[in-house]
Specification:
Length: about 450
């Protein structure tokens, strides 16, 4: 059954439509999770800590792909809702080409600036060398990483989310298999883990270009275009929330690592790394749903179908609430098995990780609310409010909590900061949703 953007959406249809997007984001998260699993168990906790230390830096650059993907999707979907498919495809082509150009520039700059940045953040000795080894390989292929982020939303917009899912699964499975071979069997360590990751990134970033460049039966196709300042600025503004969110999450990750090095040393960084792997899956579920439903919101906004817009909003909150409760319970129950999987070889590290899991799991009760509301305003082409919601969640609440609470509660304050930050962000985002209701009639 093909679900169209113009359909009326029940809860079941919303789940079916967004499921490929959720799976795409979750499989993308598997890259660093699989790297972490094999590196931790076959190369040791210092190299595991190095992967966790350098990943936020890499994600900062990948955030540009998320910005163009989400912002471009909002603009293109609105244009399709206005029945101008030719203009929509010009915008699509322009955004993809620009992402490739920017990716190449960052790949070059990243090779030059990685070591000074790592030194500035406090990496030293053996861990610094491991960070450089892993980081430089990944950054060399950063254009593919950015495109992969971008095409996740474009496949949904093109009404080809199943094809996007197959591409992402192919990339994820190749990464898992190659990690097992390069790290587990051939003992290549971080070089093997990074190589497996970039091969997966190439599959996820290049195959979509081949598909959209050829004649296809989707809503989108790559072709001739020209760079236009106004649509590009609109795309950047629409996607600014996703850019801010990804940048801020990376900055917060760096800040968490810095605080943990102060309060618990390498063990703290390793424990946080395990938490973040589970967090990436959970964020992926909420973000994947928001990403999947966003083109529908933008399309109906462009078509001025306000009853359907309200229907999607209300049903989304119901689905997010049910999912949040299930995920929180699952996180608590699975804390011990997950800690065993990643750091079971070290008793002290295992105990710290389980303790952190049980506390931080309750942040999942609130996490989905600001993420959906931010995506909702992006879909309405209101990038400013969307960016404010994202910025408050990460840079204000998460940063403030991780700086303040450890001074009061020590190491536990770092774990409690995750709950406090998500709760504060949820309250702020709901306030924005209420105050803008009259303007958008949802």
């Amino acid at each position: 059954m093909r679900i169209k953007l113009s359909d009326h959406f029940s809860c079941k249809k919303m789940l079916l439509f967004t499921l490929p997007s959720i799976a795409m984001v979750v499989f993308t998260s598997i890259y660093s999770i699989v790297d972490g699993f094999f590196v931790s168990n076959f190369a040791g906790k210092t190299q595991f800590a190095a992967v966790n230390f350098v990943m936020p830096i890499i994600m900062i650059v990948g955030a540009i792909g998320a910005m163009f993907g989400s912002g471009g999707t909002a603009l293109i979907a609105k244009t399709l809702g206005e029945k101008d498919s030719e203009k929509a495809n010009r915008y699509f082509s322009m955004i993809v080409y620009l992402t490739i150009i920017i990716g190449i520039i960052f790949a070059v700059l990243g090779q030059l600036l990685l070591k000074p940045l790592l030194l500035l953040l406090g990496a030293e000795g053996e861990m610094l060398d491991y960070c450089i080894t892993y980081g430089r390989i990944i950054i060399a292929f950063i254009p593919a990483y950015m495109l992969q982020y971008e095409f996740q939303t474009f496949f949904v917009l093109a009404e080809k989310s199943n094809l996007g899912l197959l591409t992402t699964i192919g990339a994820g499975v190749s990464n898992i298999v190659l990690d097992a071979v390069f790290v587990g069997i051939l003992d290549f360590g971080l070089v093997g883990a990074a190589t497996a990751t970039v091969i997966g990134m190439i599959i996820g970033g290049v195959i979509p270009i081949i598909y959209f460049a050829r004649k296809n039966n989707s809503l989108l196709r790559l072709g001739k275009t020209k760079f236009q300042r106004k649509p590009l600025l609109r795309t950047a503004l629409n996607g600014s929330s996703e850019f801010v969110s990804n940048i801020s999450m990376s900055v917060v990750g760096i800040l968490f690592n810095t605080q943990l090095m102060k309060f618990a040393g390498e063990n703290g960084v390793a424990a946080y790394g395990t938490l973040m792997y589970v967090n990436m899956i959970y964020v992926g579920i909420f973000f994947g749903y928001s990403m999947g439903i966003s083109p529908v919101i933008s399309f109906n906004y462009g078509a001025q179908n306000m009853p359907e817009l309200k229907n999607i909003k209300n049903k989304s909150f119901m689905l997010i609430g049910i999912t949040a409760v299930i995920m929180t319970v699952a996180a608590v129950l699975l804390s011990s098995p997950l800690a065993t999987m990643f750091v079971g070889y070290d008793k002290e590290l295992y105990d710290m990780t389980v303790h952190a899991f049980v506390i931080s799991a309750f942040s999942f009760l609130f996490m989905g609310i600001p993420m959906f509301i931010s995506a909702f305003f992006t879909s309405l082409n209101n990038g400013i409010i969307s960016a404010i919601v994202s910025f408050s969640r990460t840079m204000i609440f998460q940063t403030g909590c991780v700086l303040i609470l450890p001074t009061l509660f020590g190491l536990n304050g770092i774990w409690f900061s995750m709950i406090a930050a998500e709760l504060g962000a949820a309250v702020i985002s709901i306030i924005f949703l209420i105050t803008q209701k009259r303007k958008y009639n949802y």
